[in-house]
What does this fold into?
Amino acid sequence: MRVSIIGTGYVGLVTGACLADVGHDVTCVDVEPAKVDAINAGRAPIHEPGLPELLARTVGRSLRAATDLAAAVRDSDITFIAVGTPAAEGRIDLRYVGRAAEQIGAALRAKPGRHTVVVKSTVIPGTTDGLVRERLEAGSGRRAGVDLGLGMNPEFLTEGQAVADFMGPDRIVLGGIDAATRDVLAEIYAPFEGAPRIRTNNKTAEMIKYASNAALATMISFANEFGRLCSVLGDVDVADVMKGVHASAYFTSRLQDGRTVKAPITSFLEAGCGFGGSCLPKDVTALVAQGRQLGLPMAMLGSVLEINATQPDELLRLVRKHVPDLRGARVALLGIAFKPDTDDVRESPAFPVIRRLREAGAVVTAYDPVARPVSHPDLEGVHLADSLAEAVRAAQVVLLVTRWPEFQGLPAELAAAGIEPLVVDGRRVLDPAGFRRYEGIGR
Ligand code: NAD
It folds into this structure.
């Protein structure tokens, strides 16, 4: 099928490259010419394992990038909207989705025949059948459900494993205003055999995405609340407690041959620095705002956000146990990306930690194996090291924020530098035995 995708970020580009690889003809559209040029030259503008190989196979054949939205829409049968939906002032900012729908609507005026538009961006329930439908109908002069298909197909990929997730999905949600729209979506996804299909209306499709993300965020704040209680109680380590929780048959299956299989959700039931990234914080915020707007206080999700917002204070508390006055203290912060295997730093817990350190007068050096944000207000005055060795060379305190495997080399680097700084493990991935002074979150 001929596919156009509006918005070529983490979701748009991975979707486009994967659909092109399974036999569709795809044009990825973006307003940023640099991104478009990079893709057309076969270069991935983001760090995502497997993406360069995918681009090498598809660019110039079944995949191309362009800035001309109208032409891409006219030359396709189906258009996905994959633009950003950030949070602004505590609620979802739908301006990019609204603008994209407006532009697609205008482009459809000049196109004969039926066309299908599908929202892939994460949008609060009601957006597809509301704002998007209005803009599309006004621009195109068509009617959704008559000569215009209108669908909602949320994306569940995880950055750092996005290509693998897209190619081997755990579920495919086919939301549509009518059966014809869902049938078109089903055809698009026909090559992805094996994954369960959920055929539903647009609002349910939108809500499935929010409920999925809210469940993950809740698990994280749940574990962090226990971590705090463990730290205060003493003689109880949240890592041991969570191991005991994971062992429950609800979380770990025992196979007939006696082997056990831990459910992936257990990785969210671990104390750490809190959740970040471009999805969980903004999605939970958007949902709480929607509830508030509808007169329904979302008390539980409000607490999930509050625990997350104050989790960086836990790290600072651990540092201050050993270094009460941080003025002039040299702190090495390990990890800027919000999770390993990505260069995405949006809403990374590293930033609130850096802010608090700098407010306390610390001199911060930060290091990430991949993420090198060119400009970020929280990184002003922060030295960005080129290697782990450089980052920790003169550190009095080392703070681990992101679970990059490279940081397992920390004991060797400290030994090579001949120093014994305080090590604060914000992810509980280091072996305390490797350090003279060690603090772990929830320990
Ligand atoms: P992103 O910021 O990486 O990409 C969005 C792209 O859209 C940008 O390149 C921007 O230039 C482009 N754009 C904006 N308006 C445009 C327009 N009118 N025409 C053409 N291009 C336009 O965002 P993302 O991380 O890919 O997320 C996109 C959506 O998918 C969001 O709603 C997000 O919540 C959702 N989502 C993201 C992930 C993830 O892990 N990143 C996972 C699942 C769902």
